[in-house]
Model the fold of this input.
Amino acid sequence: MTDATPTRAQRFAALVVPEAERAGYTGFGAKARFARDTGMTESSVTRLWQGSAVPDGRFYDAISQATGIDLGTLLVEGGILSPDSLQSLSETDRSQVQSALTPEEAADGLGIKVGREVFLSTVEGLKRLEADAPEDRSDRGGTAAQM
Done:
């Protein structure tokens, strides 16, 4: 009897691959282009597409950018954050988010132990993106997209 429950890698692939294809990663060279755009190796992209491995967390931000999938969703599906942790982050008051809370304190508060380094590197990557973002964000969508 086989276990019908999909693995984390299979769930991750089921989320990422269709969105990657919708984003134009189809046809000959699709995996090579995806690898180039995300910084992953082609063999890692192949394992992702096959549902046999979940990429290293340091690539989640680039995967999010390439596919348009919300980074929080990738972090949950990749096993970095629990759904409860993501929910508590979503419900956090903006004034608390803009406080002097360090990424290490956030990791402690969320109980992140196993994926701590991935969490911290993701936060640093997001901070760099924020620093590089244009000041005028009027073209980025609604209020929710700007929060």
Q: What stands out?
A: The CA atoms of residues 27 and 140 lie 30 Å apart. The longest helix spans residues 116-132. The radius of gyration is 16 Å.
